[in-house]
Amino acid sequence: xxxxxxKTIGRLSEYRRTLLICLAKGKTHIFSHELANLHHITAxxxxxxxxxxxxxxxxxxxxxVKALIDVIAxxxxxxxxxxxxxxxxxxxxxxxxxxxxxxxxxxxxxxxxDVDTEKANRVIAGVKCYPMTDLNKIVKELNIRxxxxxxxxxxxxxxxxxxxNSGIKGILNYTSTPLSVxxxxxxxxxxxxxxxxxxxxxxxxKK
Amino acid sequence: xxxxxxKTIGRLSEYRRTLLICLAKGKTHIFSHELANLHHITAxxxxxxxxxxxxxxxxxxxxxVKALIDVIAxxxxxxxxxxxxxxxxxxxxxxxxxxxxxxxxxxxxxxxxDVDTEKANRVIAGVKCYPMTDLNKIVKELNIRxxxxxxxxxxxxxxxxxxxNSGIKGILNYTSTPLSVxxxxxxxxxxxxxxxxxxxxxxxxKK
DNA sequence: TATTTAATGTGAAAATATTAACAATGTTCA
DNA sequence: TGAACATTGTTAATATTTTCACATTAAATA
Lengths: 207, 207
Ligand SMILES: NC(=O)c1ccc[n+]([C@@H]2O[C@H](COP(=O)([O-])OP(=O)(O)OC[C@H]3O[C@@H](n4cnc5c(N)ncnc54)[C@H](O)[C@@H]3O)[C@@H](O)[C@H]2O)c1
Ligand SMILES: NC(=O)c1ccc[n+]([C@@H]2O[C@H](COP(=O)([O-])OP(=O)(O)OC[C@H]3O[C@@H](n4cnc5c(N)ncnc54)[C@H](O)[C@@H]3O)[C@@H](O)[C@H]2O)c1
Hints:
The structure is a homodimer.
Chain A: H1 6-25, E1 29-30, H2 32-39, H3 43-52, E2 63-64, H4 65-76, E3 82-87, H5 91-100, E4 107-114, E5 123-124, E6 127-131, H6 135-141, E7 144-149, H7 156-166, E8 170-173, E9 186-189, H8 192-206
Parallel strand pairs in A: 3-4, 3-7, 4-6, 7-8, 8-9
Antiparallel strand pairs in A: 1-2, 5-6
Helix pairs in contact in A: 1-4, 2-3, 6-7
The structure holds a DNA duplex.
């Protein structure tokens, strides 16, 4: 199970989201083609992904929802769980904290940080916001491993440096500023404009 | 130029973002390896993408930033431009509107919609917010082609239906509810949790 | 000017990712 | 029960994406 394709990881996360919804609805089993339809991919793709993670069922009533969730958790989660922090408690930062809160048991947004003294030392969207000057201290105290950057674009580079120096191992960058980090830090970047432009391109093609 | 790989489209959008920053800084030419480094990919990849869109330069001083921006615009943009609307003017909706405003000339967030009567008929983040009951009328009036869904997850399905019925051709779904749309509508979905879980997985691997 | 250097463009190879095809086998129901 | 059916797991084929390797040529330099 050592070398899963990056794409598969992304899909596993998506499957789990769907499976958790099924679980909440009391659905105990799900067919590969059901999962496939919900994710707009083929059933073979789903079966292959599931094969890769080593889960299988002898049943012909589909996969056991609960069991599959557990196997995916084995892949993605760590036993102790991981703590993340949001840097920049503005509109987007708050939306992310609110959204995320309580969604996963092994992944927590444990703190936020902001330079704005109005925000620092308050609880924002249910999570304590610390002043940026406390970054190193709090990252160590709360064992924060992942930083989510939602500061203005011009501050992204310096914030990323601070995060790396504080010992963080993964960064999720939502600003439009491209970042660079050392080899031993994993970086993921997302820009809504790219998503929207993809939609625009395909809308144009369909016309 | 009819069949560009989907991946290339995403990268072209990203290149343009970087090129616009270069332009603003007064940088007139850029090497393939510079673009590559900024985007954490190889220079060959950049050259191949640029080859695919039919741009080339005889110069050995890199690509002409302005010219390349124009070629990418030819691919992604339409002459008249496209209008989008945000459905659900909450935290995320507002963050998106604020972020997007004025970033692109051919892609505009022309309206937002909300059921909350407090929000409807006000200007939120610089864009007028309409009541949901006006959806059909305004979509036609303002020629809105793309809908960005940022309502609570339980409302996503019905909102998507309304959007499709109103004649929209592309949907960008930010809720955690998987949607289904007719063939002639392009759907893009994004869930932050998946991004964060990818980071978590790779942080775990590196340990 | 002649030589060296460094950049692009691209065919071919390699690597990744997806899909087709089908054997194996529970499940359904006549 | 047993034939028909449906679903999984997986190998092989296909398709897509990325990278290699290098010919070509502008630019820099001696
Ligand atoms: N990727 C996307 O899809 C997307 C979408 C929307 C917004 N954005 C980007 O996300 C970022 C945040 O957007 P927003 O609308 O929340 O902005 P905002 O202005 O509401 O919030 C930014 C916050 O960062 C704080 N801040 C400023 N400098 C800081 C620093 N050096 N260290 C710590 N905190 C600092 C501010 O006090 C503020 O609270 C922006 O860069 C925006 O462009 C990205
Ligand atoms: N994909 C992601 O990365 C991501 C991140 C954060 C939040 N989210 C999701 O985005 C959505 C919005 O999050 P938020 O924090 O902005 O929530 P929010 O509660 O602040 O905003 C939701 C808005 O939608 C409005 N609304 C409710 N029902 C509606 C309907 N039927 N039609 C039109 N408008 C309606 C509400 O009045 C409110 O203004 C949620 O589904 C949330 O889970 C996704």
